[in-house]
Amino acid sequence: MTILEKIFVRFGGYSPATASQTPYEDREPIVKLGAAVIFSAIVAAINWSAAGWAFSVNRPDEVRFVIAFFSGIFSFGLVAVLDSSFIYFADISEAAWYKKVSYGVLRVVIIFLVSSITSQAVIPFLLGDELTAYALKMAEIAESNRINKLETQYKYSDTKLATDSANEEVVKLEEKLQIIPEDIQQRMKSAKRCWVNYYSKKQELTNAGYLSSEVKEKMKAKAVACANEDNVAKNRLNSYMEDIRSRLTAAHETKSQAMVELQTTKNTIAKRVSYARAIEDKAFTPTSATVLASLLETDRGVRAKYYLVTLLLVTLECLPFILKLIAGRTPIGERIADDRKESRIRRSMVLAEAEHERCITNAILVATQDACVEVLGSVEGRTYFAEVFASYMMALAPTGAVTEMMRDIERQQADVNDFIRRYPRYASVIAEAWTQAIKQTLKTLQGASASLG
Questions:
Q1: Contact (CB, 8 A) for 58 and 32
Q2: Spatial CA neighbour of 34 closest among 74, 91, 108, 99
Q3: How many angstroms separate the CA atoms of 160 and 152, rounded?
Q4: Close Cβ partners of 82 (under 8 Å, ≥ 6 residues apart)
Q5: 277, 150 contact by CB (below 8 A)
């Protein structure tokens, strides 16, 4: 196999060493599946790289590049491992169909979940202008609503109305300060007419030949009347002016306080708006899920384009599954599955034969034990058992096997105790026969020891 074919086979889920032992026509489906897995992994890597680049928009370009690179590497490895593993196990597995389908469904669900995230980063590259304009629109609407809410919260309208009222009052008082009231003007005109009349009569008297002292004496009452009237007019004017100036001073103070309060409210609102605008500048972006969701709800064309692109990305990532459903099981997978099935059957047969032999052995052992117990139940049997055991001891006595024999006796003692527990009704008989055998053995060993000495 060529290096490229080995790579395709590896991504198709099989080892090149396994596939190289089969003809090319048998491994050709695996090569094509491996190519599909590589293509899907590349598509996923591009999606994840775009997502990493888009979602790290507020970071330096070097950091964004590193995030995009490692996102693509991770996605490529994840898709390659999951898809190649599914193809291999689906190819050789003898599991029920619903188990394979459940794994396939789980993998498709994972693809949908991941694609729903990565598509939010890919879509801005395709709908950049629409999303940018809509993000600006959303920001403007949010800012307008926020300003209205903040103005209501901080009672901006009332403060502005109070400032305007204070300003109007100042303007009105300044106008009053420039205009003398009609009644005061009438008094001032009356006083002026009085003086005009006074000087006119005084001139007439002077022209008539009266002396200055006489004229003055004659006009004295008129002069006093005119002076009084003139003083009244001036006093009324002064009082009016003092009242207007006093009210104007108070109005200026009220206006200053209202303007300070209005400016404070404006600064507070502007600060809150600036803080919110900084957050919205980061939130209302072309990659924002909120912007995309709102645009999809309001624009049918964008919605159709979004779903078509998402469906295309999901289909490309599901390409190995689609090809696997079309191709079915490969010849290599069938051969491996058959070999495993044959191995399981052979192992089951060996285990069955071993179990059969064990059952036969246990049956023979039980029958032998029951026969021995029955023989030991008679006097002749016990006597014969003791003689045979003694002969056995006599034969072993001269040899070096006595030590081993004693160990056998210990082990047989344990067996005797086990027989006694299993057959309690024969306990006395078994104990008596064993005791006689032991006594006979001791005598035999003593006789052998004496003869050797």
A1: no
A2: 91
A3: 12
A4: 107, 110
A5: no
Distance (Å, whole) CA 173 – CA 27: 103
Rounded to an integer, what distance in angstroms lies between the CA atom of residue 104 and that of residue 125?
31
Residue 416 near residue 363 (C-beta atoms within 8 A): no
The two three-digit tokens of residue 237, written as one number: 């004017």
Three-class secondary structure of residue 222 per DSSP: helix
DSSP 8-state class, residue 23 = -
What are 423-445's pLDDT values in tens digits?
666 666 666 666 766 666 666 65
Q: Which of 447, 425, 442, 323 is nearest to 386 (CA)?
A: 442
CA nearest neighbour of 442 among 399, 401, 385, 402: 402
Rounded Cα distance between 402 and 145, Å, is: 109
Type of residue at 342: E
Q: Per the structure block, which two tokens stand in for 33?
A: 């599946």
Instruction: Say how far apart CA 19 and CA 335 lie, in whole Å.
Output: 11
Q: How confident is the model at residue 391 (pLDDT cuts 50, 70, 90)?
A: low
C-alpha 208 chain-centroid distance: 117
Number of residues assigned to the chain? 453
30-59: per-residue pLDDT in tens?
888 888 889 888 888 888 888 788 777 778
By three-state DSSP, how is residue 284 classified?
coil
Strand (E) or helix (H) holding 433: helix 427-452
164 to 156, 246, 254, 268, 283: CA distances (angstroms)? 12, 20, 11, 20, 38
With contact defined as beta carbons under 8 Å apart, do 27 and 332 qualify?
Answer: yes
| Under 8 Å between Cβ of 50 and 68 | yes
The DSSP letter of residue 425 is G
Task: Give dist(CA 74, CA 59) in Å, integer.
Answer: 20
Lookup result for tokens 């590049």: 65
C-alpha–C-alpha distance, residues 257 and 151, integer Å: 19
